[in-house]
Amino acid sequence: MKAPIHMSRTTEEIALSAPAPSRFPGSVFNDGTEPDPRFSLANERTFLAWIRTSLALLAGGVALEALGLRIQSDFRLCASVLLILCGVLSPVQAWMGWKKTERALRIGTPLPPASMALPLVILLSGVGVFVLAGAMLA
Amino acid sequence: MTPLFDPGLQPERTALAWRRTGLALLVASLASAKVLPSVVGPWSVLIGTGGVLGAIALLFRAQRRYRRLHRMLAAGGTPESVANGRLVATIALSVVIVGLVLLIAIVQMHFE
């Protein structure tokens, strides 16, 4: 007799914690419970910081080509392309990170690492190498 | 004066983060209207205009959202939608698209 009561409670709990159907994306909001609003707000600020990083990287990539610096032009293009690639990867990190963190906050698991950090470090080191080599060749 | 929701001023800090992102976008768009024509050609009109309009919309939207959030949180209610995946996805996707357009345009201009 106890088992069905327990089961019905569980379904009731699931029904109560179910989100409004309009919330996007479902992979984040279909599970868990509403976290402390302060954590969601902090997660949002981290997202925005990645977006500003991306804007800065894109601006750097364009500036390198636009300012007519004395850097060997093929090396300059490589550096510029790498910077813009980083500027494209950053919003991907921004989105994935926001999603994974919001989900972790809802279901109470440890927060995810910034998985795009290492690729960005490698690419940005490449930018430095190209700019340095290009400046010495010019 | 309405009572504060959080002594750590989380909603206010988030509102300011939105504001500096919007302003960064606005400055970047204005700068690109000046610099981009020599680098990426006619794409610059699209990127510049879209960026300025997007930044202005973002700034207004962020301000409205902050007011709504502040009212809701200060009143002690549980906000059912602090997190907003649609806006987050839209912004991330727009920046990715702008980046890809810049990438194609810069490589194209280099080999012309």
Key phrases:
heterodimer, A: 138 residues, mainly alpha, 5 helices, elongated, disordered N terminus, B: 112 residues, 3 helices
Return residue spans of chain A where pLDDT drops below 50 for at least 5 consecutive residues: 1-12
Biggest interface reads: A-B, 46 and 46 residues
Number of strands of chain A: 0
Radius of gyration of chain A: 23 Å
Terminal-residue CA separation of chain B: 62 Å
| Whole-number total of structural domains of chain B | 1
> Considering DSSP H and I runs of 4 or more, what fraction of the residues of chain B is helical?
over 70%
Mean pLDDT of chain B: 86
Number of helices of chain B: 3
What oligomeric state do the depicted chains represent?
A: heterodimer
Describe, in plain words, how this protein is organized in 3D.
The complex is a heterodimer of chains A (138) and B (112). Chain A is mainly α and 138 residues long. Chain A has helices at residues 2-17, 26-29, 37-66, 73-107, 117-137. Chain A has one domain (36-137). Chain A contains five helices and no strands. In chain A, helix 3 packs antiparallel against helix 4 (73-107) and helix 4 packs antiparallel against helix 5. The longest helix of chain A is centred in the middle third of the chain and has 35 residues, at 73-107. Residues 1-12 of chain A have low confidence and may be disordered. The mean pLDDT of chain B is 86. By secondary structure, chain B is mostly helical. Helix content of chain B is 80%, strand content 0%. Chain B starts with 9 loop residues before the first helix and ends with a helix. At the A-B interface, helix 3 and helix 4 of A face helix 1 and helix 3 of B.
